[in-house]
Amino acid sequence: MSDTSTTQRYPIGQIPDMPPPLLESGIFYWVRKNLLSSWTNVALTILAVWFLWLVLPPMYEWMFSNAVFEAADRAGCQALGDGACWAFIQERFTIFIYGFYPEPERWRPILAFGLLFVALGPLLFDGFPYRGKAMLFSMAYPFVAAWLLLGGGGLTQVTTDQFGGMLLNVIVGVTGITFSLPIGIVLALGRASNMPAVRIICVTFIEFIRGVPLITLLFVASTMLSYFLPPGTSFDLLMRVLIMVTLFSSGYMAEVIRGGLQAIPRGQYEAADSMGLKYWQSMRLIVLPQALKISIPGIVNTFIGLFKDTTLVIIIGLLDILGMGRASLADSKWAGLSSEVYISIAVFFFLFCFAMSRYSLYLEGKLETGHKN
Amino acid sequence: MKRILLGATAALALGATAVSAGTLDDVKARGELNCIVNSGFVGFASVDKNGKYQGYDIDYCKATAAAVLGDASKIKYKPATGKTRFTILNSKEGDVLWRNTTWTFVRDVDVKLAFQGVNYYDGQGFMVPKKLGVKSAKDLDGASVCIQTGTTTELNLADFFRVNKIKYEPVPTEGNEESRRNILAGRCDVYTTDASGLAATRATFKDPENWVILPEIISKEPLGPVTRHGDDQWSDIIRWTKNALLAAEELGITSKNVDELGAKAGNNPEINRLLGTEGDLGGMLGLDKKWAHRAIKAVGNYGEIFERNIGKNTPVGLERGLNALWTNGGLQYTPPFR
Predict the structure, then answer these.
(1) What is the domain count for chain A?
(2) Contact across the interface for A327 and B15, Cβ inside 8 Å
(3) Secondary structure class of B98 (helix, strand, coil)
(4) B191 touching A (Cβ < 8 Å)
């Protein structure tokens, strides 16, 4: 305050920047501008604070201060406190993560999950060290992961019906995401193609996929398929799910990317042609980089939707994290703790989906070329 | 191209005719029993902390696997919802359904299922909060009712209200757990399901004393195992495995004394026949002599299964009631092993 109250003289050209007045900066300014700028906003702020005051303290009590973190069963939990019974989640944590995956082999999914990030690194970030060589590993990753998870070739074999919990969500989600993007690009290009046969096939496929709910496709994959296949053939259930989920999301992906393709001005195609570029060259060098950039929000949207759809596998008898939660809830020792289970599962999904959405924002920022304004 | 297609069709057709072996052969060839179970029902099917299935129905799966394959752990469980269970069975993705399924005319005849007897006699009841002040289900005019879809419960409810000319509003959910949340949150006035389920649900409440189960039992719910139409040998195996566990209780055979009783023929000819020390009942089923011995050894007799999973000393806390042996005034009765 002292330096604003006394008038000080400075040589011309050397007047230092003064701090802004107290009410125009810092937290006061923020509060005034964002919460109290008009009478409506004042009313809304009061309402919101009142609501939070109603909700937050009991929630904190339930989730933390009255919660029980260690107990042998539900009765034990209730004896210790009337808040959340996190002891249940703690006891079930490993099966929520790995499902029925055999205990001594659990380092394999962990390793596969860790390697996933090594494989994703060079794909997602420019500055990754030795990006070129690391790319090769990314290409090989799906096979490495499949080998780690399924075994064979020196490792103990683990059948896919032992997959479960979060592991299953991640496998289905990552596979669907990895394969639906390239398939979706091909379908989108096919739909825009001049060749009638290619166009008709692509349009039929896309419209079929979009016209049928995922649940129906999964159900067909799990039960109807055995009517069509010759008796005695057994086709791995997880494999059927992966195929169906991938096809389903690539149908949607194709439409998202088509939106991007249509936003590219005609001149860009013509410019590429006049440079003497072949079809694939012009797509790879001129059209797709622009179209995909525009489509990023839509693409990530589809990814997030797909990841959440993985919980539908419960319909066909695979126990993902949600199914595991439900099956655990039926344990008579613990029955009745559904809030705890569903909240934990919600947190898990939020972490994954939020990470995806943040990455998409980062990518949009990085690829921003200033055409927007 | 045409030739290849023709060849493929021919191969498919051949395949279709060549493989029509019974379920028993399929199971033996596979070395694993595909058992369709509930994806989560307190006391009957659930997952423990090591990721192992447990429960009343699960024990029956184990008994079947022990009888057929000689190893109670050779099971692939197929968790199913109320709506998907029959499709999974009929599409041969599962071999047998041990999933608290009510035996009804339409399911038996029209859905082409084969019910193999009753391992649990249940009946549908109502539970209301005490503060509602309702004494009888007939006072429930205009009530909103929490109910699970795709079950006989839903149909019984409609019948009961129609017969008594009163109105209700259904609050449908996909599973038992959602209904439990709904009634606790007050989204409905009444919760209806099988009496066993009501007791199990009430046991999970913080204040069980504030909830009443109304006296009316509005339906018969005979729950039992199901197989596909048209495979009599496999159906016999399922039916008589269930009966063997019941006979074991009648005859006083338990998982503890079965090895002793089955070691050599004793004085009781029925025990001898059941445990294969006399005659060859197992051979007639297409199994070996020790089939029932293994089933009883794996999970115990009917009474042991009941007490371990849903009996008085478990959190579910059910009485034997209708499920007592016929000699104790219940309905559980097995045809003779002769």
Answers:
(1) 2
(2) no
(3) strand
(4) no
More confident residue, A7 or B249: B249
- Chain A residue with minimal CA distance to B87? A223
Q: Using CB atoms, which residue from B50, B87, B314 is nearest to A223?
A: B87
B238 and B256 in contact (C-beta within 8 Å)? no
For residue B16, is pLDDT > 70? no
Nearest chain A Cα to B43, which residue?
Answer: A332
Q: Which amino acid is at B17?
A: T
Q: Per residue in A214-266, pLDDT tens? A: 999 998 888 777 777 776 667 788 888 999 999 999 999 999 999 999 999 99
Q: A308 and A206, same structural domain? A: yes
Question: Most A CBs within 10 Å: which of B177, B198, B202, B205, as the mutation test of the A interface?
Answer: B177
Q: Can you give the residue range of the structural domain that contains A190?
A: 86-101+158-367
B205 has a chain A CB within 8 A of its CB: yes
B221 DSSP β-pair partners: B122
Q: What average pLDDT is seen over chain A?
A: 88
What does the alpha-carbon distance between residue A92 and residue A349 come to, in Å, rounded to a whole number? 17
**Residue A110 within a domain:** no
* Residue A172: other Cβ atoms inside 10 A: 26
B12 and A CB contact within 8 Å = yes
Smallest CA-to-CA distance from B204 within A345, A77, A323, A91 is with: A77
Q: What 3-state class would DSSP assign to B124?
A: strand
Binning chain A into helix, strand and coil, the percentages to the nearest 5 are 75, 0, 25
**Please, what is the Cα angle at B75 between B74 and B77, to 5 degrees?**
165
pLDDT at B15: 42
Q: Closest-CA residue in chain B for A92? A: B49
The per-residue pLDDT for range A79-94, each reduced to its tens digit, is 888 889 999 999 999 9
Same structural domain, A329 and A198: yes
Give the Cα separation of B74 and B69 in Å (integer). 7
Structure tokens at B85: 């269970």
Distance CA(B86)–CA(B94), nearest Å, equals 9
Residues B212, B127: Cα–Cα separation, whole Å:
6
Q: Which residues of A touch B (CB under 8 A)?
A: 73-75, 78, 82, 91-92, 94-95, 98-100, 103, 161, 164, 219, 222-224, 226-227, 230-233, 314-317, 319, 323-324, 326-333, 335-336, 338
Q: How many CB pairs under 8 A join A and B?
A: 120
Interface with B, mutate which of A223, A241, A318, A341 (most B CBs under 10 A)? A223
Q: Which residue of A has its CA nearest to B308?
A: A332
- Domains along chain B with CATH numbers: 22-120+223-328 (3.40.190.10), 124-219 (3.40.190.10)
Q: What share of chain A has pLDDT > 70, as a percent?
A: 96
Q: Is the dihedral of CA B197, B203, B205, B210 positive or negative?
A: positive
pLDDT in tens, A166-185: 999 999 999 999 899 999 99
First to last CA, chain A: 42
Q: Is residue A113 part of a domain?
A: no
Q: Do A330 and B45 touch (CB under 8 A)?
A: yes
Q: Look at residue A80 and tell me if it is in a domain.
A: no
For B34, the 3-state DSSP assignment is strand
Tokens coding B311: 């009996």
ipTM for this prediction = 0.81
Residue B35 has a CB neighbour count (10 Å cut-off) of 26
- Closest by CA to B242, choosing from B220, B223, B268, B228, is B223
**pLDDT band at residue B13 under the 50/70/90 scheme:** very low
| A59 and A200 within one domain | no
Burial class (CB in 10 A: 0-12, 13-18, 19+), B124: buried
Q: Is residue A118 part of a domain?
A: no
Chain B interface test: which of A70, A90, A101, A329 (most B C-beta within 10 Å):
A329
